[in-house]
Specification:
Layout: H1 3-25, H2 36-64, H3 68-71
């Protein structure tokens, strides 16, 4: 086996091993499987968006509608 061939084989094995590690850790999407980490990120994003919308609504309501104490 030539040195060039051994180097190419080792490089291919390293790439394959790295790809497998990423796949097994869930960094690469697995077909038909939603990873826990991915679903946690999506849930956090939804909660952040919901709290942002809630804060904007509260600000709009307090800006455009008089408070109960101001009516009296």
């Amino acid at each position: 086996m030539t040195a060039f061939y051994r180097t190419m084989q080792r490089d291919a094995g390293d790439r394959l091993g790295a790809s497998y590690r990423l796949y097994s850790e869930g960094s690469i999407a697995q077909p038909g499987v939603e990873t826990t980490l991915q679903s946690d990120w999506e849930q956090t994003d939804r909660l952040d968006q919901a709290s942002d919308i809630e804060a904007r609504l509260q600000q709009a309501v307090s800006t455009f509608l008089p408070r109960n104490s101001e009516k009296d």
